[in-house]
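Notes from hallway chat w/ T.B., transcribed later so I don't forget. T.B. wanted the structure written out for a chain they're using in a teaching module, and asked if we could keep both sequence and structure tokens in one place. Agreed to drop them here.
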Amino acid sequence: MSAKLEERLLTLFILLVVLAMTVTATGYRAPARLIPLAVGVLTSCLFLGVAATVFVPRFRRRPQKAESIPLESFPGNWEDEDTDQTTAHRRTEFKIMGSLLALTAVTYLIGFLPSIFLYVLLFLRFQSKESWRTSLAMAASILAVIYGVFVQALNVPLHSGIF
């Protein structure tokens, strides 16, 4: 798949998700829909602008002309490095997308609060290479803030899972 096609598909996917979230927010009660609807409308407008730059040639940024420097003047084999960097970049993108899909599935199964705790804990420990103590402290702190703000202060019901 070409980079241009990947960019177009990702932009279209994100735009559709944001629009779906905006439409979903219209079904909330009056006080609860204010922030999600405002964020959804603004984000939709931003991504419509991004989509215009991706899909409409007239809106694309034109590359600036730069002084041409031959690749031979730089040490190393540039073709191999580009391939390695592209592969590593693609692997990182798949890791991020996979972790977000896993977060969504785990949230559905065990609920929002435990899944956020687990996600932060595992991300900090294995992706960021933090110590267990730091990972546990950060995950517990984030859980406490989310619980305090959304459950206690705002009285927002969070998904409790199917188990």
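Follow-up for T.B.: The radius of gyration is 21 Å. Might be a good example for the class.
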